[in-house]
Automatic annotation (TrEMBL):
<dbReference type="InterPro" id="IPR043129">
    <property type="entry name" value="ATPase_NBD"/>
</dbReference>
<protein>
    <recommendedName>
        <fullName>Butyrate kinase</fullName>
    </recommendedName>
</protein>
<keyword id="KW-0547">Nucleotide-binding</keyword>
<dbReference type="GO" id="GO:0006083">
    <property type="term" value="P:acetate metabolic process"/>
</dbReference>
<dbReference type="InterPro" id="IPR000890">
    <property type="entry name" value="Aliphatic_acid_kin_short-chain"/>
</dbReference>
<dbReference type="Pfam" id="PF00871">
    <property type="entry name" value="Acetate_kinase"/>
</dbReference>
<keyword id="KW-0418">Kinase</keyword>
<keyword id="KW-0808">Transferase</keyword>
<dbReference type="GO" id="GO:0008776">
    <property type="term" value="F:acetate kinase activity"/>
</dbReference>
<keyword id="KW-0067">ATP-binding</keyword>
<dbReference type="GO" id="GO:0005524">
    <property type="term" value="F:ATP binding"/>
</dbReference>
Amino acid sequence: MILVLNCGSQSIKWKLFKDDLKLKEKAKKKVLKSKDYKGILLKELSKIKNVKIVGHRVVHGGDKFRKPLKINGKNLKELEKFNKLAPLHNPFNILGIKTA
């Protein structure tokens, strides 16, 4: 299963795809009404089983990240440097990466 995750400041959206890239289920959205962002995200992720790959939407990668990449500790730290360019989005995107 492939999970595509979009963590925003007001909501969490995701889609699940089968390994052959066919859509498994329609997009889901959780509007956040609590300040416990990580707790809500963990609760929603716990409902999803057999995920092999997680893709994340990150709003701003500056001039360094302009195409998809595999996240590791080094480039995650680099991405965090661009939080100031998208302060309403990137911190939540990065929280989603760290949580998933």
